[in-house]
């Protein structure tokens, strides 16, 4: 009984401290909407057009961020093939939401220029050991028909208990939207704010039948 209680307490403390080191933790909200595919379910998705509109018309919204995870079959470096990594694409606003420390290179390049990538410290060591990976190239086989060469522009340090889990990060393709976050610059009632979006006619996948939700 004592062992189970300790395990439960440790789990709760761990979950409560997700993003604990992030100074923006209380200001970040995930934007969710009703699913057009399954009644009663929700999807963590919004288009860049909608996010841009929200930022422009609602002064409470300081910034927005889209994230996506790219599929792949393998990573190739030189003559060596490696198992797939978790490659996340993100908007240039990513550092304003999540304070990952840049250990080498320039993270902004990876988030703003095509075919550039930043690796986490753990992944860089796995691929290159103690060598400096900045400027090196890796090939990622996204599909049998798509093999993309990425240049490494930065190495970043993971921090414990992050809501995100990835091995590399690259720039978001502009026309796509995925999991979306809002950075709020003042205290809000998330339910009231979400209802304002509905009342103001901010478009959703389900048009008049759908609405948005804000999750901390």
Notes on the protein architecture:
- By secondary structure, this protein is of the alpha+beta class.
- Helix content is 25%, strand content 34%.
- The protein has helices at residues 2-16, 48-57, 94-97, 107-112, 121-128, 190-199; strands at residues 28-34, 42-43, 61-70, 74-77, 80-82, 87-90, 101-105, 116-120, 137-143, 146-157, 168-171, 179-184, 212-215.
- Strands 1, 2, 3, 4, 5, 6, 7, 8, 9, 10, 11, 12 and 13 form a 13-stranded mixed β-sheet that branches.
- Strand 4 (74-77) and strand 5 form a beta hairpin.
- The longest helix has 15 residues, at 2-16.
- It is globular and about 55 Å long.
- The model has no long low-confidence stretch (mean pLDDT 91).
Query: How many distinct beta strands?
Result: 13
Q: Could you tell me how far the N terminus lies from the C terminus, measured between alpha carbons in angstroms?
A: 33 Å
Structural class: alpha+beta
Beta-strand percentage range: 25-35%
SSE layout and pairing:
Layout: H1 2-16, E1 28-34, E2 42-43, H2 48-57, E3 61-70, E4 74-77, E5 80-82, E6 87-90, H3 94-97, E7 101-105, H4 107-112, E8 116-120, H5 121-128, E9 137-143, E10 146-157, E11 168-171, E12 179-184, H6 190-199, E13 212-215
Parallel strand pairs: 6-11, 8-10
Antiparallel strand pairs: 1-2, 1-12, 1-13, 3-6, 3-12, 4-5, 4-9, 7-10, 8-11, 9-10
Task: Give a concise summary.
It contains 6 helices and 13 strands. The protein has helices at 2-16, 48-57, 94-97, 107-112, 121-128, 190-199; strands spanning 28-34, 42-43, 61-70, 74-77, 80-82, 87-90, 101-105, 116-120, 137-143, 146-157, 168-171, 179-184, 212-215.
């Amino acid at each position: 009984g004592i062992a189970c209680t300790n395990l439960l307490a440790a789990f709760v403390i761990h979950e409560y401290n997700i993003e604990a080191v992030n100074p923006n933790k209380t200001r970040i909200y995930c934007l969710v909407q009703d699913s057009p595919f399954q009644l009663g379910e929700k999807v963590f998705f919004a288009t860049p057009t909608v996010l841009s509109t929200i930022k422009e018309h609602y002064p409470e919204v300081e910034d927005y961020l889209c994230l996506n995870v790219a599929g792949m079959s393998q990573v190739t470096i030189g003559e060596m093939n490696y198992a797939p990594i978790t490659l996340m694409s993100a908007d240039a606003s990513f550092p304003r939401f999540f304070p990952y420390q840049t250990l080498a290179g320039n993270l902004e390049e990876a988030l703003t220029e095509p075919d550039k990538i930043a690796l986490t410290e753990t992944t860089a060591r796995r691929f290159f050991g103690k060598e400096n990976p900045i400027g090196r190239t890796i090939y990622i086989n996204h599909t049998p028909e798509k093999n993309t060469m990425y240049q490494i522009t930065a190495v970043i340090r993971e921090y414990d208990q992050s809501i995100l889990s990835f091995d590399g990060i690259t720039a978001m393709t502009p026309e796509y939207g995925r999991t979306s976050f809002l950075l709020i610059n003042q205290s809000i009632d998330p339910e009231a704010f979400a209802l304002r979006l509905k009342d103001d006619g901010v478009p959703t996948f389900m048009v008049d039948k759908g609405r948005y939700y804000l999750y901390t």
